[in-house]
Amino acid sequence: MSTPLIEIPATQHRIDMGELSSYVGGQQLTDIKADDECVSLRWNDASQGHFPLLWLRDHCPCIQCRHPLTRERLFVPLADIEVAPQATLVKGNLRLQWADSHVSLFDAVWLHQRRPDNDIDPVGELLRIRRPWSTNFVPTHVLHADSMSEEGERHWLETLLRDGLVLLDEGPLADEEVSRIARRIGPMRASNFGARFDVYSKPNPNNAAYTSIGLALHSDLPNWRQPPDIQLLYCLQNDAAGGESLFADGFAVAEALRQAAPQAFRTLCETPIDFRFQDEEQDIGIRAPVIELNATGQLREIRFSNWIRDTLRLPFDEISPWYAAFRQFWQLLHDPKHQIELALVPGQMAAFDNRRVLHGRRAFDPTTGKRHLQGTYLDIDMIESRLRVLQRNP
Ligand SMILES: O=C(O)CCC(=O)C(=O)O
Ligand SMILES: [Fe+2]
Ligand SMILES: [Zn+2]
């Protein structure tokens, strides 16, 4: 893991304390040059950086430019800066005195990490590393007890981002443990099923999950504009016959579809369809494609749930091709080469990326025993946030 980004508050703190020595073990500045466009810096590891004047002025960490308590920016960069500041080295760090005599002190390591064209954000990097499942993918298991240490927590969250699925093993058989795990990371993302939901067969179900029927691979809440990013499913009881869990990497399978049947792939990307949930109190719907790409053609999200697909409202000529494309994607997803199956044991929790990895379960027989899962959702922002916080003390 690379060095975490040091933050403005840390810089500010050291500057306030008059400690302008560089971050322990970090780079120091050796050469500085300022003109009326930019400040050019060289560090003792021979790296260089060029910083436009307005960028530096905008990032001044002093307490007039950043709120001393909230650390948020106060300075507003509206006027261009066209006069070279006086630049001096102070114990390997940078001091700038601007034409209006405002003084900015910058930490050498802070600048090094943020030099233009060399932008790194270790957690951002991590998010870009999504490793598609191979055909013999086996999910990583982390012991619940290990996930309680900072290192173990980092490991399971990083695995979750990388693989889109991770299992926590041997947790307590305790009501609400899923909520405690979630809250360590961030607020639970509520939906029309509540912030924390129980999955067992209920007398008057408003959702297929609350019956004992099998659930084909699906994503949760594709009928929402912003479906939940991360789902946690914690097993408390599972001794009914059946009820095995199913998972497939929707992104890996969509890529396989793109290769094998490009026209079907395009149809699923380019055809918005309706998803809708209705019960006594709610009617939540959205029109969106099954496969969504970003501006550069990379996969952004899969929306897939056959039971909350609404009426297929398409022009006559598009209906048959859409069903054909859907069928091809369905068959690939449920191909044993892509779909994995496992039986959750009590005390075990699956965490998965609901917008990438599809989940399902085999039917179970409620007359043979009890099956009870507790679930909740989290925003991926909270996973990233937690990882950044954990990285502050590597
Ligand atoms: O019963 C299960 O294993 C999964 C239920 C489900 O799909 C859900 O709670 O979202
Ligand atoms: Fe589900
Ligand atoms: Zn300032």
What is the fold's blueprint, element by element?
Blueprint: H1 8-16, E1 29-34, E2 38-43, E3 48-52, H2 53-58, E4 86-90, E5 93-97, E6 103-106, H3 108-113, H4 122-128, E7 140-143, H5 150-163, E8 165-169, H6 177-185, E9 196-199, E10 215-218, E11 230-238, E12 241-242, E13 245-249, H7 250-260, H8 262-270, E14 273-278, E15 283-288, E16 291-293, E17 299-302, H9 316-334, E18 339-342, E19 349-353, E20 357-361, E21 364-365, E22 371-378, H10 380-391
Parallel strand pairs: 7-8
Antiparallel strand pairs: 1-2, 2-3, 4-5, 5-6, 8-19, 9-22, 10-20, 11-19, 11-22, 12-21, 13-18, 13-20, 14-15, 16-17
The structure holds 2-oxoglutaric acid, fe (ii) ion and zinc ion.
